[in-house]
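Project outcomes to date are best conveyed with an example. Our students and postdoctoral researchers have been running inverse folding experiments weekly, and each run begins with a structure described purely in C-alpha cells. The record below, which covers 115 residues, was selected by the lab manager from last quarter's runs and is presented without edits.
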C-alpha cells in the first residue's frame, strides 16, 4: 500500500522558518517525482514545488527564493524548507505523487504564519 505522511507544520511568526517532511512507503521512492501542494481556507489546492528523479526542481513563482524542495532517497523522504514565511503562506500543505496512474496524497500538515 502506497502511503505519504507529512510532518513539520506548525505556527510561526512572519519571517520565520519551517521544514516540512514527507515520508513515503510502498513505492521505489527514488524513481518518483515528488510534489508539494498547499490549500488555503476557501481556495483551491495549488502547486508549490516539485522534484524529479534527477533532482531538478520547479517552484511556484511566489515561493521562489524562499522555499527549497529536496529529497533523501535513502530515507524515502522529501522535504520542503520554508524561509521568510509570510501570512499568505498559511495553508494545509500536502505531499503528492502519482503511482500507476493513481493520485496519492498525504493527509496534510497545517502551516500557520502570524503577522
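After processing, the design step wrote out the following sequence:
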Amino acid at each position: 500500500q502506497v502511503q505519504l505522511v507529512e510532518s513539520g507544520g506548525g505556527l510561526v511568526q512572519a519571517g520565520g522558518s519551517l521544514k516540512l517532511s514527507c515520508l513515503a512507503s510502498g513505492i521505489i521512492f527514488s524513481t518518483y517525482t515528488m510534489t508539494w501542494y498547499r490549500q488555503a481556507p476557501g481556495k483551491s489546492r495549488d502547486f508549490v514545488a516539485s522534484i524529479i528523479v534527477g533532482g531538478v526542481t520547479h517552484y511556484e513563482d511566489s515561493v521562489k527564493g524562499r522555499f527549497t524542495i529536496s529529497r533523501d532517497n535513502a530515507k524515502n523522504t522529501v522535504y520542503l524548507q520554508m524561509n521568510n514565511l509570510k501570512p499568505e503562506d498559511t495553508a494545509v500543505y500536502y505531499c503528492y505523487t502519482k503511482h500507476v496512474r493513481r493520485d496519492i496524497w498525504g493527509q496534510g500538515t497545517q502551516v500557520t504564519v502570524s503577522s
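The first strand starts at residue 3 and ends at 7. The two ends are 40 Å apart (CA to CA). The training component of this project remains on track.
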